[in-house]
Design brief:
Radius of gyration: 20 Å
Shape: globular
Largest sheet: none
Order of helices and strands: HHHHHHHHHHHHHHH
Number of strands: 0
CATH superfamily of the largest domain: MFS general substrate transporter like domains
CATH class of the largest domain: Mainly Alpha
Amino acid sequence: MLSVPGFIAALVEPGIGLAGDTRHRRVVVVVGGASLAAALVATSLAPGFLVLLVAAIAMYPASGAFVNLSQANLMDLAPHRREGNMARWVLAGSLGSVIGPLVLAGAVIAGIGWRSVFALLAALTIGLAAAAWIVHPAARSEDPPAGALLRTALGSLRDREVVRWLLVLELQDLQGDILLGFLALYLVDVAGASRALAGIAVAIWTLGGLAGTIWLVRATRRLDGLRYLRVSTVAALLLFPAFLLVPSAPAKLTSAAAIAALTAGWYPIAKARLFATMPGASGTAIALCALASLLGTAIPLVVAVAATHLGLGRAMWLLMLGPLAVLALLPRTRLRD
C-alpha cells in the first residue's frame, strides 16, 4: 500500500516536474489538485484493498503535481527569500502532521469515522485547486521544446552543486523521516519500552520538529544556512549515539526531541539551496528531486535487511551515515546565489 504508489510516483513525477517549466504549469497544478480530490473521494468510498491501492497510486503523483509545483511557484516568487519561505513551507507541513491525526482521532471518537474526514479533505482540495487557478503566477511567454527540457535536466546532473544538494536532500532523511519510521519499533523491540511510551516518543519527535521549524522561521533572516547545517550536523553526530546508548527512557525521549529539533532545518535549507543552483528551472529541480527519491526509497529497505541479519539495535547505527555524509558533502565556502 505504501511502497507501490511511491515507486510509481517516482517514475511519473519527473515528467510532471518538467511540464512545470512550460507555460502549462497552472493547468498541471490545477489538474493535479482535481485528481488529488478524486483520489481522496475514492479513498473515502473504498470497499476494500484494491480500490484503496488504486486511489493511493493516483494520489501520489497528483499530490506531486499539485503540491510540489506549488512549492516551485513559492521559490520563484521571491528568489532572495528561498530559505525563509521553505522554512514556512515546512512549518505548514509540520502543523498538518500534528493537526491531521488529531482530526482523525476526533472524528473516530465522535463516531463520524475516518471516511468522512477524507471526504472533507476532498472538498477542501477542490477549493485550494480553484484558488490556485486564480492566484497562479503568469504563464511563461515562451514554451521550450520537450527535448530542450530533457537536455537541461540531464545536463544539470553534471553540475556538482546540483548533485551535491540532491544527495544532501536524500541522505539527511536518515536522521529525519527514516529514523522516525524506526523509532517506535526500536523503543519497543530493543529498548524494552511499552507501546504507549513508543507512541508518546513519536508525538514528542513531531513536537520537537515543530519547535525546531518555528525557531528556524524566526531566525532565518539573520541565519547563515550553511553554517547552521554544519553546526547542527555535528550536534546530531553527538546526540544520536547518546540516544542509542543511554539506558533510561526519559533520556532517550529527550535525545530524540533534540535530534528532531536540530534536523528540522536540514530539508528546507538544502531544498532552497537546490533551487538557488537552478534559477529559472524550478520545475526541473522538482523533476530531479523525484528521480533522486528512488535512492531515498531504497534506504529504509537497506536498514531493514541489516536489521534482519544483525538485529535492529546494530542496524540503527547505519543511520549515523546520514549526518556523516551530509557533513562531507557540505561546501567549504558559502554558496553564491
